[in-house]
Amino acid sequence: MRNRLLLIFGMLLVLFIGCATPGPKTIDITYLSDHKKTQSGHIGIASFEDKRKDMDKGYIGYRTLINNSQETYFVKGLDLADTLTKIMGVYFEKNGFSIRSINPWDLTPDGVVNASNGFNQIIAGDINTFECRAKKNGATTDMILNIDLTLYLGLTNKKALKTIPVSLTLERTEFTFTPKKLEQFVNQSIEDVIKKALIF
Q: Which of 70, 79, 112, 140 has a Cα at 20 to 30 A from 48?
């Protein structure tokens, strides 16, 4: 009986260690929410700029393990700016717009006019801060996501530029941590940010 318990304990220990090992891991950041296509028009989207300092362009956060080592998390595709640009396009398409990629444009009213090119609106964005930290706290794991974005909305018919700053900290506590739960937390947070920043 004792040998059997030791064997079960050993198997659980191996499983735990295999599930919580330091090193890089990736998660898939996507926009999953559905919308009624109540809008129409053409939108041009320029690639977002990652202005975070001293961070890999695919880095999104880390989890501190019991022994104080870390799992480091990256976005699938290893380019957060490219991922957020695509997510923005999906959001507009799900609302009924047609979208097209455009070159970076001068973020001024004159820049809006020069880049209008038949679009109803043009979009650009800066990533100032984007990092998720997870740490075990007793029987639970706390996840904290810091997001600071600056969105630029060019209104071509008004020849105007609207700057939309988005800065917030979101927290979630889970009894058990998995990369999938981190992925869901990040995706839901991004959806909330976009919906609140770009209201139709």
A: 70
DSSP string for 134-166:
EEEETTEEEEEEEEEEEEEEEETTTTEEEEEEE
Phi, psi for residue 22 in degrees, rounded to 5:
-65, 155
pLDDT digits (tens, 9 = 90+) for 29-72: 999 898 989 999 999 999 999 999 999 999 999 998 878 888 99
Short-list 126, 124, 125, 121, CA closest to 96: 121
For residue 85, give the amino acid letter.
Answer: T
Residue in 101, 97, 112, 94 with CA at minimum distance from that of residue 195? 94
Q: What is the pLDDT of residues 133-162, one digit of tens each?
A: 998 887 889 999 999 999 999 999 999 999
**Cβ(142)–Cβ(134) below 8 Å:** yes
d(CA 120, CA 128): 27
CB 136 within 8 A of CB 175: no
What gap in Å lies between CA 64 and CA 59, rounded to an integer?
A: 15
